[in-house]
Amino acid sequence: MDGTFFNEMYHDGAVRTPYARLEDWMRAMPAELRQMKQAEAEALFRRIGITFAVYGEGGDPDRLIPFDMFPRVFSQAEWRKLEHGIKQRARALNAFLMDVYGRGEILRAGRVPAHLVLGNEAYERAVAGIFPARGVYSHIVGVDLVRTGPDEFFVLEDNCRTPSGVSYMLENREIMMRMFPTLFRENRIEPVDGYPDLLRRTLASVAPQKCDREPTIAILTPGHFNSAYYEHSFLADLMGVELVEGPDLFVEGGFVWMRTTEGPKKVDVIYRRVDDAFLDPLCFRPDSMLGVPGLMDVYRSGGVTIASAPGAGVADDKAIYTYVPDMIRFYLGEEPLLQNVPTWQCARPEDLKYVLAHLPELVVKEVHGSGGYGMLVGPRASAEQIEHFRARLLRHPDNYIAQPTLSLSTTPTFVEEGIAPRHVDLRPYALVGERVELVPGGLTRVALTEGSLVVNSSQGGGVKDTWVLAE
Questions:
Q1: What CATH class is the domain 209-303?
Q2: Which residues form the Circularly permuted ATP-grasp type domain (predicted)?
Q3: Is the pTM of this model over 0.90?
Q4: 342-404 CATH
Q5: How confident is the model at residue 375 (pLDDT cuts 50, 70, 90)?
Protein backbone atom coordinates (compact mmCIF):
# COMPACT_ATOMS: atom_id res chain seq x y z
CA MET A 1 0.00 0.00 0.00
CA ASP A 2 1.00 3.63 -0.57
CA GLY A 3 -0.47 5.12 2.59
CA THR A 4 -4.17 4.30 2.35
CA PHE A 5 -4.01 3.72 -1.42
CA PHE A 6 -3.51 0.45 -3.26
CA ASN A 7 -0.28 0.59 -5.26
CA GLU A 8 -0.78 -1.52 -8.39
CA MET A 9 2.93 -2.35 -8.71
CA TYR A 10 3.88 -2.99 -5.10
CA HIS A 11 1.75 -4.91 -2.62
CA ASP A 12 2.73 -6.29 0.80
CA GLY A 13 6.33 -5.27 0.20
CA ALA A 14 6.75 -7.13 -3.09
CA VAL A 15 6.36 -6.40 -6.79
CA ARG A 16 3.01 -7.71 -8.05
CA THR A 17 3.31 -10.35 -10.77
CA PRO A 18 1.95 -8.26 -13.70
CA TYR A 19 4.71 -5.69 -13.13
CA ALA A 20 7.54 -8.17 -12.49
CA ARG A 21 9.41 -7.40 -15.72
CA LEU A 22 9.11 -3.65 -15.39
CA GLU A 23 11.09 -3.21 -12.19
CA ASP A 24 14.48 -3.79 -13.80
CA TRP A 25 13.50 -1.58 -16.76
CA MET A 26 12.50 1.18 -14.37
CA ARG A 27 15.63 0.97 -12.23
CA ALA A 28 17.96 0.73 -15.22
CA MET A 29 16.73 3.98 -16.78
CA PRO A 30 18.98 6.90 -15.79
CA ALA A 31 17.40 10.34 -15.39
CA GLU A 32 19.08 11.64 -18.57
CA LEU A 33 17.63 8.85 -20.69
CA ARG A 34 14.20 9.29 -19.13
CA GLN A 35 14.23 13.02 -19.90
CA MET A 36 15.39 12.35 -23.45
CA LYS A 37 12.65 9.77 -24.01
CA GLN A 38 10.04 12.11 -22.50
CA ALA A 39 11.10 14.86 -24.91
CA GLU A 40 10.96 12.35 -27.77
CA ALA A 41 7.40 11.36 -26.80
CA GLU A 42 6.29 14.98 -26.63
CA ALA A 43 7.85 15.67 -30.04
CA LEU A 44 5.99 12.68 -31.51
CA PHE A 45 2.69 13.81 -30.02
CA ARG A 46 3.20 17.30 -31.37
CA ARG A 47 4.28 16.14 -34.83
CA ILE A 48 1.32 13.79 -35.13
CA GLY A 49 -0.97 16.55 -33.89
CA ILE A 50 -2.35 14.92 -30.75
CA THR A 51 -3.74 17.89 -28.88
CA PHE A 52 -6.95 18.65 -27.03
CA ALA A 53 -8.70 21.99 -26.88
CA VAL A 54 -9.58 23.99 -23.79
CA TYR A 55 -11.55 27.15 -24.49
CA GLY A 56 -12.28 30.11 -22.26
CA GLU A 57 -9.04 30.11 -20.28
CA GLY A 58 -6.99 32.42 -22.49
CA GLY A 59 -3.83 31.61 -24.44
CA ASP A 60 -3.53 28.85 -26.99
CA PRO A 61 -6.53 26.50 -26.55
CA ASP A 62 -4.75 23.60 -28.29
CA ARG A 63 -2.66 21.80 -25.70
CA LEU A 64 -0.40 18.79 -25.74
CA ILE A 65 -1.83 16.10 -23.51
CA PRO A 66 0.78 15.00 -20.94
CA PHE A 67 1.99 11.45 -21.63
CA ASP A 68 3.56 9.26 -18.96
CA MET A 69 5.90 6.56 -20.21
CA PHE A 70 5.38 4.12 -17.34
CA PRO A 71 2.71 1.65 -18.56
CA ARG A 72 -0.17 0.43 -16.45
CA VAL A 73 -0.41 -3.37 -16.45
CA PHE A 74 -3.27 -5.85 -15.99
CA SER A 75 -3.01 -9.62 -15.88
CA GLN A 76 -5.20 -11.66 -18.20
CA ALA A 77 -7.33 -12.78 -15.24
CA GLU A 78 -7.89 -9.17 -14.11
CA TRP A 79 -8.86 -8.16 -17.62
CA ARG A 80 -11.32 -11.04 -18.07
CA LYS A 81 -13.12 -9.96 -14.91
CA LEU A 82 -13.39 -6.41 -16.18
CA GLU A 83 -14.37 -7.49 -19.69
CA HIS A 84 -17.27 -9.66 -18.51
CA GLY A 85 -18.55 -6.88 -16.25
CA ILE A 86 -18.30 -4.22 -18.95
CA LYS A 87 -20.12 -6.35 -21.52
CA GLN A 88 -22.88 -7.06 -18.99
CA ARG A 89 -23.23 -3.35 -18.30
CA ALA A 90 -23.31 -2.39 -21.99
CA ARG A 91 -26.08 -4.93 -22.66
CA ALA A 92 -28.16 -3.66 -19.73
CA LEU A 93 -27.75 0.00 -20.71
CA ASN A 94 -28.94 -0.75 -24.24
CA ALA A 95 -31.89 -2.76 -22.93
CA PHE A 96 -32.80 0.22 -20.74
CA LEU A 97 -32.68 2.60 -23.70
CA MET A 98 -34.83 0.32 -25.84
CA ASP A 99 -37.32 0.06 -22.97
CA VAL A 100 -37.61 3.76 -22.04
CA TYR A 101 -38.08 4.72 -25.69
CA GLY A 102 -40.55 1.87 -26.07
CA ARG A 103 -42.86 0.20 -23.54
CA GLY A 104 -41.30 1.73 -20.43
CA GLU A 105 -41.62 -1.46 -18.40
CA ILE A 106 -38.90 -0.57 -15.89
CA LEU A 107 -40.70 2.71 -15.19
CA ARG A 108 -44.08 1.05 -14.75
CA ALA A 109 -42.49 -1.48 -12.41
CA GLY A 110 -41.14 1.39 -10.29
CA ARG A 111 -37.57 0.14 -10.53
CA VAL A 112 -36.44 3.50 -11.94
CA PRO A 113 -38.40 6.68 -11.07
CA ALA A 114 -40.23 7.87 -14.18
CA HIS A 115 -39.48 11.55 -13.53
CA LEU A 116 -35.71 10.89 -13.65
CA VAL A 117 -36.13 9.61 -17.21
CA LEU A 118 -39.05 11.45 -18.77
CA GLY A 119 -38.08 14.75 -17.14
CA ASN A 120 -34.41 14.36 -18.01
CA GLU A 121 -32.96 16.90 -20.44
CA ALA A 122 -31.12 14.06 -22.22
CA TYR A 123 -34.39 12.21 -22.92
CA GLU A 124 -35.35 12.91 -26.54
CA ARG A 125 -39.08 12.47 -27.14
CA ALA A 126 -38.42 12.53 -30.88
CA VAL A 127 -36.80 9.09 -30.50
CA ALA A 128 -39.74 7.46 -28.70
CA GLY A 129 -41.15 4.54 -30.68
CA ILE A 130 -38.10 4.20 -32.96
CA PHE A 131 -36.55 0.73 -33.03
CA PRO A 132 -32.99 1.02 -34.40
CA ALA A 133 -31.12 -1.76 -36.18
CA ARG A 134 -30.50 -4.73 -33.83
CA GLY A 135 -32.10 -2.72 -31.03
CA VAL A 136 -28.80 -0.96 -30.33
CA TYR A 137 -28.95 2.63 -29.13
CA SER A 138 -25.48 3.09 -27.66
CA HIS A 139 -22.87 1.60 -30.01
CA ILE A 140 -19.74 2.79 -28.18
CA VAL A 141 -19.98 2.57 -24.39
CA GLY A 142 -17.09 4.04 -22.41
CA VAL A 143 -17.14 2.72 -18.84
CA ASP A 144 -15.00 4.69 -16.39
CA LEU A 145 -13.50 2.39 -13.76
CA VAL A 146 -11.49 2.95 -10.61
CA ARG A 147 -9.59 0.44 -8.53
CA THR A 148 -9.30 0.47 -4.76
CA GLY A 149 -7.64 -2.89 -4.01
CA PRO A 150 -6.24 -6.11 -5.50
CA ASP A 151 -9.73 -7.35 -6.45
CA GLU A 152 -11.79 -4.21 -5.98
CA PHE A 153 -13.03 -2.35 -9.05
CA PHE A 154 -15.87 0.16 -9.14
CA VAL A 155 -17.70 1.85 -12.02
CA LEU A 156 -17.43 5.60 -11.61
CA GLU A 157 -19.69 6.49 -14.54
CA ASP A 158 -20.96 5.34 -17.92
CA ASN A 159 -20.56 7.19 -21.22
CA CYS A 160 -23.22 6.19 -23.75
CA ARG A 161 -23.18 9.15 -26.14
CA THR A 162 -19.84 9.83 -27.80
CA PRO A 163 -17.08 8.75 -25.38
CA SER A 164 -13.76 10.23 -26.46
CA GLY A 165 -10.15 9.29 -25.83
CA VAL A 166 -9.74 6.15 -27.91
CA SER A 167 -7.21 7.92 -30.15
CA TYR A 168 -4.99 8.38 -27.09
CA MET A 169 -5.30 4.67 -26.30
CA LEU A 170 -4.04 3.83 -29.78
CA GLU A 171 -1.34 6.50 -30.02
CA ASN A 172 -0.02 5.77 -26.51
CA ARG A 173 0.65 2.21 -27.65
CA GLU A 174 2.17 3.30 -30.96
CA ILE A 175 4.57 5.70 -29.27
CA MET A 176 5.57 3.22 -26.56
CA MET A 177 6.32 0.54 -29.18
CA ARG A 178 8.41 3.02 -31.14
CA MET A 179 10.40 4.23 -28.11
CA PHE A 180 10.81 0.94 -26.20
CA PRO A 181 10.72 -1.94 -28.72
CA THR A 182 12.72 -4.20 -26.37
CA LEU A 183 9.98 -3.95 -23.75
CA PHE A 184 7.48 -5.36 -26.23
CA ARG A 185 9.82 -8.17 -27.24
CA GLU A 186 10.27 -9.16 -23.59
CA ASN A 187 6.58 -8.93 -22.62
CA ARG A 188 3.62 -10.62 -24.29
CA ILE A 189 1.12 -7.77 -24.50
CA GLU A 190 -2.32 -8.02 -26.06
CA PRO A 191 -2.64 -5.68 -29.08
CA VAL A 192 -5.11 -2.79 -29.26
CA ASP A 193 -4.49 -1.77 -32.86
CA GLY A 194 -7.47 -3.81 -34.05
CA TYR A 195 -9.86 -1.23 -32.61
CA PRO A 196 -10.52 0.71 -35.87
CA ASP A 197 -11.36 -2.50 -37.79
CA LEU A 198 -13.52 -3.71 -34.92
CA LEU A 199 -15.35 -0.37 -34.81
CA ARG A 200 -15.94 -0.48 -38.55
CA ARG A 201 -17.30 -4.04 -38.35
CA THR A 202 -19.53 -3.06 -35.43
CA LEU A 203 -20.98 -0.10 -37.32
CA ALA A 204 -21.45 -2.18 -40.47
CA SER A 205 -23.35 -4.78 -38.44
CA VAL A 206 -25.99 -2.18 -37.49
CA ALA A 207 -26.67 -0.96 -41.02
CA PRO A 208 -30.38 -0.17 -41.54
CA GLN A 209 -32.73 -2.71 -43.11
CA LYS A 210 -33.00 -0.57 -46.24
CA CYS A 211 -29.28 -1.10 -46.91
CA ASP A 212 -28.91 -3.93 -49.47
CA ARG A 213 -25.15 -3.72 -50.08
CA GLU A 214 -21.88 -3.09 -48.25
CA PRO A 215 -22.84 -0.17 -45.99
CA THR A 216 -21.27 3.24 -46.46
CA ILE A 217 -20.08 4.64 -43.12
CA ALA A 218 -19.23 8.26 -42.35
CA ILE A 219 -18.06 10.09 -39.23
CA LEU A 220 -20.00 13.30 -38.66
CA THR A 221 -17.84 15.94 -36.95
CA PRO A 222 -18.72 19.46 -35.78
CA GLY A 223 -15.49 20.59 -37.44
CA HIS A 224 -11.92 21.43 -36.63
CA PHE A 225 -12.81 23.78 -33.75
CA ASN A 226 -14.18 20.85 -31.75
CA SER A 227 -11.96 19.72 -28.85
CA ALA A 228 -11.93 16.11 -30.13
CA TYR A 229 -11.47 16.88 -33.84
CA TYR A 230 -8.10 15.15 -33.95
CA GLU A 231 -9.80 11.92 -32.84
CA HIS A 232 -12.56 12.26 -35.45
CA SER A 233 -10.08 12.61 -38.32
CA PHE A 234 -7.75 9.98 -36.84
CA LEU A 235 -10.49 7.34 -36.66
CA ALA A 236 -11.86 8.18 -40.11
CA ASP A 237 -8.39 7.69 -41.56
CA LEU A 238 -7.75 4.36 -39.76
CA MET A 239 -11.24 3.03 -40.55
CA GLY A 240 -11.06 4.07 -44.19
CA VAL A 241 -14.33 6.03 -44.01
CA GLU A 242 -15.28 9.59 -44.88
CA LEU A 243 -15.06 12.41 -42.34
CA VAL A 244 -17.96 14.77 -43.03
CA GLU A 245 -19.49 17.92 -41.63
CA GLY A 246 -23.18 18.78 -41.70
CA PRO A 247 -23.10 20.72 -45.01
CA ASP A 248 -21.47 17.67 -46.71
CA LEU A 249 -24.71 15.70 -46.23
CA PHE A 250 -28.26 16.20 -47.44
CA VAL A 251 -31.56 14.33 -47.34
CA GLU A 252 -33.44 13.31 -50.45
CA GLY A 253 -35.88 10.52 -51.29
CA GLY A 254 -35.91 9.12 -47.77
CA PHE A 255 -32.11 8.65 -47.57
CA VAL A 256 -29.02 10.57 -46.49
CA TRP A 257 -26.57 11.46 -49.22
CA MET A 258 -22.97 12.62 -49.15
CA ARG A 259 -21.68 15.18 -51.63
CA THR A 260 -18.63 13.86 -53.48
CA THR A 261 -16.66 14.91 -56.56
CA GLU A 262 -18.28 11.98 -58.37
CA GLY A 263 -21.82 12.93 -57.41
CA PRO A 264 -24.07 12.06 -54.46
CA LYS A 265 -23.34 8.85 -52.54
CA LYS A 266 -25.81 7.26 -50.11
CA VAL A 267 -24.71 7.05 -46.46
CA ASP A 268 -26.04 4.16 -44.40
CA VAL A 269 -24.36 4.55 -41.01
CA ILE A 270 -23.40 7.85 -39.40
CA TYR A 271 -20.99 7.70 -36.47
CA ARG A 272 -21.88 11.09 -35.12
CA ARG A 273 -19.64 13.17 -32.90
CA VAL A 274 -22.19 16.00 -32.85
CA ASP A 275 -24.40 16.55 -29.79
CA ASP A 276 -28.11 15.68 -30.00
CA ALA A 277 -29.27 19.29 -30.01
CA PHE A 278 -27.35 20.07 -33.20
CA LEU A 279 -28.06 16.93 -35.27
CA ASP A 280 -31.13 18.12 -37.16
CA PRO A 281 -32.37 21.73 -37.15
CA LEU A 282 -35.83 20.57 -38.24
CA CYS A 283 -36.16 18.40 -35.12
CA PHE A 284 -33.92 19.90 -32.46
CA ARG A 285 -32.25 23.33 -32.35
CA PRO A 286 -33.44 25.30 -35.40
CA ASP A 287 -30.32 27.49 -35.34
CA SER A 288 -27.91 24.55 -35.71
CA MET A 289 -25.43 24.83 -38.57
CA LEU A 290 -23.73 21.54 -37.64
CA GLY A 291 -26.46 19.04 -38.45
CA VAL A 292 -28.42 17.73 -41.42
CA PRO A 293 -31.98 19.02 -42.02
CA GLY A 294 -34.37 16.06 -42.23
CA LEU A 295 -31.90 13.55 -40.74
CA MET A 296 -34.35 12.42 -38.04
CA ASP A 297 -37.07 11.70 -40.60
CA VAL A 298 -34.71 9.32 -42.40
CA TYR A 299 -33.67 7.77 -39.09
CA ARG A 300 -37.30 7.31 -38.08
CA SER A 301 -38.10 5.57 -41.37
CA GLY A 302 -35.14 3.17 -41.11
CA GLY A 303 -33.10 4.74 -43.90
CA VAL A 304 -29.99 5.44 -41.82
CA THR A 305 -28.37 4.33 -38.57
CA ILE A 306 -27.09 7.01 -36.19
CA ALA A 307 -24.41 5.78 -33.79
CA SER A 308 -24.96 6.40 -31.01
CA ALA A 309 -28.68 7.12 -31.21
CA PRO A 310 -30.05 10.54 -30.26
CA GLY A 311 -31.26 10.35 -26.69
CA ALA A 312 -28.72 7.70 -25.64
CA GLY A 313 -27.44 10.15 -23.05
CA VAL A 314 -30.37 9.49 -20.75
CA ALA A 315 -28.65 6.19 -19.84
CA ASP A 316 -25.42 7.84 -18.65
CA ASP A 317 -26.93 10.60 -16.58
CA LYS A 318 -25.34 10.55 -13.12
CA ALA A 319 -28.75 10.25 -11.42
CA ILE A 320 -29.66 7.29 -13.66
CA TYR A 321 -26.24 5.73 -12.94
CA THR A 322 -27.37 4.72 -9.47
CA TYR A 323 -29.98 2.40 -11.01
CA VAL A 324 -27.71 0.47 -13.41
CA PRO A 325 -27.36 -2.51 -11.01
CA ASP A 326 -31.18 -2.68 -10.92
CA MET A 327 -31.22 -2.57 -14.74
CA ILE A 328 -28.88 -5.57 -14.87
CA ARG A 329 -31.17 -7.55 -12.58
CA PHE A 330 -34.36 -6.38 -14.33
CA TYR A 331 -33.33 -6.97 -17.97
CA LEU A 332 -30.67 -9.68 -17.74
CA GLY A 333 -31.73 -11.57 -14.61
CA GLU A 334 -28.12 -11.45 -13.41
CA GLU A 335 -26.22 -9.98 -10.50
CA PRO A 336 -23.88 -7.10 -11.41
CA LEU A 337 -20.29 -8.22 -11.95
CA LEU A 338 -18.97 -4.69 -11.40
CA GLN A 339 -20.20 -2.56 -8.53
CA ASN A 340 -21.24 1.09 -8.53
CA VAL A 341 -19.66 3.59 -6.18
CA PRO A 342 -22.12 4.21 -3.29
CA THR A 343 -24.07 7.32 -4.29
CA TRP A 344 -26.38 9.80 -2.56
CA GLN A 345 -28.99 11.53 -4.71
CA CYS A 346 -29.34 15.05 -3.39
CA ALA A 347 -32.86 15.26 -4.81
CA ARG A 348 -33.90 12.92 -1.97
CA PRO A 349 -34.40 14.90 1.26
CA GLU A 350 -32.77 12.23 3.45
CA ASP A 351 -29.77 11.98 1.10
CA LEU A 352 -29.41 15.76 0.95
CA LYS A 353 -29.44 15.98 4.74
CA TYR A 354 -26.58 13.46 4.96
CA VAL A 355 -24.57 15.18 2.21
CA LEU A 356 -24.89 18.63 3.79
CA ALA A 357 -23.69 17.19 7.10
CA HIS A 358 -20.67 15.46 5.53
CA LEU A 359 -19.55 17.80 2.73
CA PRO A 360 -15.88 17.87 3.82
CA GLU A 361 -15.74 14.07 3.33
CA LEU A 362 -17.56 13.70 -0.01
CA VAL A 363 -17.19 14.28 -3.73
CA VAL A 364 -20.22 16.17 -5.07
CA LYS A 365 -20.90 16.18 -8.83
CA GLU A 366 -23.35 17.85 -11.17
CA VAL A 367 -25.80 15.33 -12.59
CA HIS A 368 -25.09 16.56 -16.12
CA GLY A 369 -21.47 17.60 -15.53
CA SER A 370 -18.35 16.25 -17.22
CA GLY A 371 -14.65 16.90 -17.59
CA GLY A 372 -14.05 17.34 -13.88
CA TYR A 373 -15.91 20.67 -13.84
CA GLY A 374 -18.78 21.62 -11.52
CA MET A 375 -17.65 19.28 -8.76
CA LEU A 376 -16.49 19.53 -5.18
CA VAL A 377 -13.77 17.28 -3.77
CA GLY A 378 -14.55 17.80 -0.10
CA PRO A 379 -11.28 16.64 1.51
CA ARG A 380 -9.28 19.00 -0.74
CA ALA A 381 -11.67 21.96 -0.69
CA SER A 382 -11.31 25.08 1.42
CA ALA A 383 -13.94 26.05 3.98
CA GLU A 384 -15.05 28.84 1.62
CA GLN A 385 -15.47 26.42 -1.32
CA ILE A 386 -17.48 24.03 0.85
CA GLU A 387 -19.86 26.78 1.98
CA HIS A 388 -20.23 28.03 -1.59
CA PHE A 389 -21.17 24.52 -2.70
CA ARG A 390 -23.53 24.14 0.26
CA ALA A 391 -25.48 27.14 -1.03
CA ARG A 392 -25.64 25.65 -4.52
CA LEU A 393 -26.93 22.35 -3.13
CA LEU A 394 -29.66 24.09 -1.16
CA ARG A 395 -30.75 26.05 -4.24
CA HIS A 396 -30.79 23.14 -6.71
CA PRO A 397 -30.41 19.81 -4.88
CA ASP A 398 -31.75 17.81 -7.84
CA ASN A 399 -28.73 18.94 -9.89
CA TYR A 400 -26.26 16.97 -7.77
CA ILE A 401 -25.18 13.56 -6.55
CA ALA A 402 -22.54 12.82 -3.92
CA GLN A 403 -20.12 9.94 -3.45
CA PRO A 404 -17.49 9.00 -0.88
CA THR A 405 -13.94 10.04 -1.64
CA LEU A 406 -12.54 6.79 -3.01
CA SER A 407 -9.04 5.58 -2.31
CA LEU A 408 -8.09 5.45 -6.00
CA SER A 409 -5.22 3.11 -6.77
CA THR A 410 -1.86 4.47 -7.81
CA THR A 411 0.69 3.39 -10.40
CA PRO A 412 4.35 4.39 -10.72
CA THR A 413 4.66 7.55 -12.78
CA PHE A 414 7.68 9.43 -14.11
CA VAL A 415 7.78 12.88 -12.51
CA GLU A 416 10.44 15.60 -12.34
CA GLU A 417 12.05 14.20 -9.21
CA GLY A 418 12.05 10.61 -10.53
CA ILE A 419 9.32 8.03 -10.01
CA ALA A 420 6.31 8.54 -7.75
CA PRO A 421 2.84 7.03 -7.31
CA ARG A 422 -0.03 8.90 -8.95
CA HIS A 423 -3.76 8.15 -9.00
CA VAL A 424 -5.32 6.61 -12.11
CA ASP A 425 -8.63 5.54 -13.62
CA LEU A 426 -9.46 3.47 -16.70
CA ARG A 427 -11.86 3.87 -19.63
CA PRO A 428 -12.30 0.72 -21.74
CA TYR A 429 -14.50 0.96 -24.84
CA ALA A 430 -17.27 -1.58 -25.44
CA LEU A 431 -18.44 -1.76 -29.05
CA VAL A 432 -22.07 -2.86 -29.35
CA GLY A 433 -23.48 -4.20 -32.60
CA GLU A 434 -24.16 -7.77 -33.64
CA ARG A 435 -22.04 -8.65 -30.56
CA VAL A 436 -20.51 -6.74 -27.65
CA GLU A 437 -16.73 -6.65 -28.07
CA LEU A 438 -13.73 -4.91 -26.51
CA VAL A 439 -10.08 -4.63 -27.40
CA PRO A 440 -7.89 -5.71 -24.44
CA GLY A 441 -7.00 -2.38 -22.91
CA GLY A 442 -8.35 1.13 -22.63
CA LEU A 443 -7.41 4.67 -21.80
CA THR A 444 -5.63 5.08 -18.48
CA ARG A 445 -5.81 8.64 -17.24
CA VAL A 446 -3.40 9.76 -14.55
CA ALA A 447 -3.61 12.66 -12.08
CA LEU A 448 -0.11 14.10 -12.50
CA THR A 449 -0.43 16.56 -9.62
CA GLU A 450 0.70 14.98 -6.37
CA GLY A 451 -2.28 13.97 -4.24
CA SER A 452 -4.85 14.96 -6.88
CA LEU A 453 -7.75 12.60 -7.61
CA VAL A 454 -8.87 14.49 -10.77
CA VAL A 455 -7.56 12.73 -13.88
CA ASN A 456 -9.26 14.76 -16.62
CA SER A 457 -6.90 16.26 -19.19
CA SER A 458 -8.73 19.59 -18.92
CA GLN A 459 -7.85 19.58 -15.21
CA GLY A 460 -4.14 18.78 -15.56
CA GLY A 461 -4.31 15.01 -15.99
CA GLY A 462 -2.27 12.91 -18.40
CA VAL A 463 -2.43 9.52 -20.10
CA LYS A 464 -0.56 6.20 -20.01
CA ASP A 465 -0.34 3.11 -22.18
CA THR A 466 -2.50 0.30 -20.75
CA TRP A 467 -1.16 -3.24 -21.03
CA VAL A 468 -3.11 -6.47 -20.77
CA LEU A 469 -0.66 -9.38 -20.55
CA ALA A 470 -1.34 -12.34 -22.81
CA GLU A 471 -1.61 -15.77 -21.21
A1: alpha beta
A2: 71-447
A3: yes
A4: 3.30.1490.270
A5: confident
